[in-house]
Write a structure and sequence with these properties.
This protein is an alpha/beta fold. 41% of the residues lie in helices and 21% in strands. It has 29 helices and 30 strands. The strands form 5 sheets. It has an 8-stranded mixed sheet with strand order 3-5-2-1-8-10-11-9, with helices on both faces. A 7-stranded mixed sheet has the order 21-20-19-18-22-23-24, sandwiched between helices. β23, α20 and β24 form a beta-alpha-beta unit. α2 packs antiparallel against α3, α4 packs antiparallel against α5 and α13 packs across α14. The radius of gyration is 36 Å and the shape is elongated. The mean pLDDT is 93. Bound molecules: adenosine-5'-diphosphate, aspartic acid and magnesium ion. Adenosine-5'-diphosphate binds next to β12.
């Protein structure tokens, strides 16, 4: 004998019922089969809804009834196109009875638990009948047996308790004489010893199947559902979740108790007592291996087996000095809740006994609060304890695994993983058996928490990064292309799953919770919503994705002003925009502080020398205990370009114009030529070396002509370059006479910094700089004689983009 159970989705459409019939047909070739079925998917909810509506005098119950009726009728017709009158007439008669029941509820304005059970029982009674009759129509040896005649319970309506002795006897007796090969039983429904209709609780068809499997002592119970087994976590919330091949009863019970709804928790008990394994299978993919739940499925497997979550949780906190050392508080508290039939899901008590904290279902909050406040009325009046504190919109997430007790540091890893992603933990509970570590968090953080924990415990090798890029001009565009091109490489070689979750230019912006497809990103962006800086931030925050990174590829002051907001949400910031780092020292310091506090790195390698690893090298020197004594550098690709091309055969004006045209200078060339840009860079290096300094502290000796310095527009400025050609030629002539080249040099020495145009003699490390090359020489305590030198292209879209990319990858390796 084999026992199989098919859930609501599996019998939710004619297409799926056909799959079920095929599976049963194949199974019945080798042995007799018992098949327990749920109601047609969604019908139990609709029956309850109709009942509520009728009770509330809402005529809409009739529409709900029609929906219920029509879904059954269309399934019957689709399954039996060549004749369905006998099935239809029985179902019509049953539906009439249902309608009368609903009208009765409407009339008396009342829906008792007893009537509610009668009402929902229609679901399973109808589905089992339709399936059995369809099978008979197709010539299969099938019968439907009403399990209300087999399963006996007490009268605890909506979640009745089974009387196993009578139930087992009924089941054994029935199957002793059953002649058919396939028996279809409605799950979930039962009768009380007094003959009233009862049910076993929501999701209870699993339980019905387990009861039958245990009574018949079968070798294995099969639960067929719409997923390929019990997953490491809810597959609807975590794409990377995968089926667990084997799991112990205890673990399965914990997982399902904490929300893995694939199995209804009491299911395990009847089969557990008899060591009957449960096999979870997928109706939509019968070949998939599924999950085996059994007694000794554990062995030396990984300590954490799964992660589950329960939503709609409320936290109750009872606290007060009057609780300390006085016995009986907890007993009275639990008795109060038990009297109200309120289920306590989680308990934590501070060791000071000063407070006790309970997790219950949100729907029970009002009743719980009122009852507890009445129980402790006296103590509250005497200020020995405070009125109960209620928090709602919470969820419990739980790590489950029997082997966790043998491994240290699992809760540490759980909480630090959550902390790193800015997920606030409201309460923690760890069962003494250590099969389960639970945390209460905000409902809005659940998806992020499950994903980040899943990554930490089940995908230890891969890390997902979600980048939000603003500014997709020259450099930004290159960055997106580089990410697109390297995505596969990163996944395979660095185990980084890099996704672009947001993109914006000054006009439009787009988002993709599971990553924007980069193939046609430009088109998508062009059709995106209207861009806004705040809107971009709000969306990144609302998506609440783990390891989020905001990438600023602009030179925009307002965007730099938003970094603090991003960091406060634990969103890392990667910027080539120099404004924030070279702004007021206090602002720079504050960003560093926020970055530490919220565990969100702030990286800006491209602020100096584009893609050259200058800041990273400096940080590494300092982190390893070295001390910078002096920095000498050529840090402006633009000025290099200008002075490499300027001589007595060219005009200064033409060279500057050409530099602008080739994208080597800022749109306003004065920012480069006045030395401000270089001053900002040396300021950043000085600060990263540990010196508190502001832009005004940097000595800037200008080389521009006095009128060039005073010009108040870009056009004016260009005019002065023409007028003052002689001034610039004299700079060149002097250098030439001294056998030198002109270089714009930044220095940091003895806590002071300066920028100026210098004559550099032949043979000096700065003398051979080509094109837009940058060079930095670090003199430190360890590199005191020979400096550490970093040299290479210091400007250009490609290298700047790869510098940003390197910062992003750095976060992936964190
Ligand atoms: P059925 O109607 O077959 O009884 P349920 O809807 O009760 O099916 O349970 C299956 C669903 O449980 C899946 O579709 C999935 O969304 C959900 N689920 C939650 N957690 C898990 C988990 N850890 N593994 C598998 N499924 C899970
Ligand atoms: N139909 C019931 C429910 O939806 C029982 C079940 O499907 O397991 O809860
Ligand atoms: Mg179920």
């Amino acid at each position: 004998m084999k026992v199989l159970k098919f859930g609501g989705t599996s019998v939710g459409s004619s297409k799926n019922i056909n799959r079920v019939i095929n599976i049963l047909d194949a199974y019945s070739k080798d042995s007799n089969v018992v098949c327990v079925v749920s109601a047609v998917g969604g019908i139990t909810d609709k029956l309850l809804l109709a009942g509520q509506q009728a009770q509330n005098k809402d005529e809409a119950f009739k529409d709900t009834f029609d929906i219920i009726k029509n879904s059954h009728f269309s399934i019957i017709k689709e399954l039996n196109p060549n004749g369905n009158s006998s099935i239809l007439s029985f179902v019509e008669e049953r539906l009439e009875a249902l309608k009368s029941l609903l009208e009765g509820i409407y009339l008396i304005n009342e829906l008792s638990p007893k009537t509610s059970d009668k009402l929902v029982s229609f679901g399973e009674l109808l589905s089992s009948f339709i399936i059995a009759e369809t099978m008979k129509n197709r010539g299969l040896s099938a019968e439907r047996k009403n399990s209300q005649e087999l399963v006996v319970t007490n009268s605890n309506f909506t979640k009745a308790e089974v009387y196993f002795k009578d139930t087992n006897k009924n089941i054994i007796d029935y199957f002793k004489s059953a002649a058919q090969k396939i028996t279809i039983l409605p799950g979930f429904v039962a009768n009380s010893a007094n003959g009233e209709q009862t049910t076993l609780g929501r999701g209870g068809s699993d339980f019905s199947a387990a009861i039958v499997a245990a009574a018949l002592h079968v070798k294995q119970l099969e639960i067929w559902t719409d997923v390929s087994g019990m997953f490491t976590t809810n597959p609807k919330l975590v794409k990377q979740a995968y089926p667990i091949e084997t799991i112990s009863y205890q673990e399965a019970m914990e997982l399902s108790h904490f929300g893995a709804k694939v199995l209804y928790p009491p299911t395990v008990q009847p089969v557990l007592d008899l060591d009957i394994p449960i096999h979870i299978k997928n109706t939509m993919d019968p070949e998939a291996v599924g999950t085996i739940i059994s007694k000794d499925a554990n062995g030396s497997s990984s300590p954490v087996k799964g992660i589950s979550n329960i939503s709609n949780i409320a936290l109750l906190t009872l606290q007060g000095t009057g609780m300390v050392g006085i016995p009986g508080f907890s007993r009275r508290l639990f008795e109060t809740l038990s009297n109200e039939k309120i289920n306590v899901i989680l308990i934590t008590q501070a060791s000071s006994e000063h407070s006790i904290c309970l997790g219950i279902e949100e729907k029970d909050v009002e009743i719980a609060k009122t009852a507890i406040d009445i129980t402790f009325e006296n103590e509250i009046e005497l200020h020995k304890i405070d009125p109960i504190i209620v928090e709602t919109n919470l969820s419990i997430i739980a790590l489950v695994g029997e082997n966790m007790k043998n491994h240290q540091g699992i809760s540490g890893k759980m909480f630090s993983t959550l902390g790193k992603n800015n997920i606030n933990i409201r309460a923690i509970a760890q069962g003494a058996s250590e099969k389960n570590i639970s945390a209460v968090i905000d409902e809005t953080d659940v998806k992020k928490a499950l994903n980040t924990l899943h990554e930490a415990f089940f995908e230890t090798m891969t890390k997902q990064l979600n980048v939000f890029i603003t500014g997709v001009g020259n450099v930004g565009e290159k960055l997106v292309e580089q990410i697109h091109q390297q995505k596969k490489y990163l996944k395979e070689n660095l185990k980084i799953n890099l996704r672009v979750a947001g993109l914006s230019n000054s006009r439009t912006m787009i988002f993709g919770e599971s990553g924007i497809a980069l193939k046609n990103w430009k088109e998508q962006l062009a059709n995106g919503e209207k861009a806004s800086l705040e809107g971009f931030f709000e969306k990144a925050k609302a998506l609440n994705l783990r390891n989020s990174i905001f990438v600023d590829v602009t030179a925009n002051k307002d965007i730099a002003g938003l970094y603090a907001k991003y960091l406060r949400e634990s969103i890392a910031v990667v910027a080539c925009n120099k404004i924030a780092c070279s702004s007021e020292f206090n602002n720079y310091k504050e960003l560093k502080r926020l970055s530490l506090k919220y565990n969100a790195p702030y990286l800006f390698e491209t602020n100096v020398g584009a893609g050259l690893p200058i800041i990273d090298t400096l940080n590494n020197l300092i982190a390893s205990g070295d001390k910078v004594t002096s920095i000498q550098a050529v840090l402006s690709g633009s000025l290099n370009y200008v002075f490499n091309n300027f001589n007595d055969t060219t005009k200064f004006y033409d060279v500057v114009k050409q530099a602008g045209a080739e994208g080597y200078t800022e749109p306003d060339p004065r920012i480069d030529l006045s030395g401000v840009d270089v001053a900002r860079k040396i300021l950043i290096l000085a600060r990263e070396s540990g010196v508190a300094m502001n832009l005004e502290d940097i000595e800037n000796t200008p080389f521009l002509s006095p009128s060039g310095l005073k010009s108040d527009s870009v056009d004016d400025f260009y005019d002065t370059l023409i007028a003052d050609e002689a001034h610039y030629q004299s700079l060149y002539a002097s250098a030439k006479a001294n056998n030198c080249q002109l270089k714009y040099v930044a220095k940091f020495d003895d806590g002071k910094a300066s920028v100026s145009l210098q004559e550099i003699p032949e043979g000096h490390p700065f003398s051979n700089l080509e094109g837009s090359d940058n060079i930095v020489m670090f003199y430190t305590q360890r590199y005191s004689q020979q400096p550490m030198i970093i040299k290479g292209a210091g400007a250009g879209a490609d290298v700047t983009a790869s510098g940003l990319f390197a910062d992003i990858i750095r976060l992936g390796n964190d």
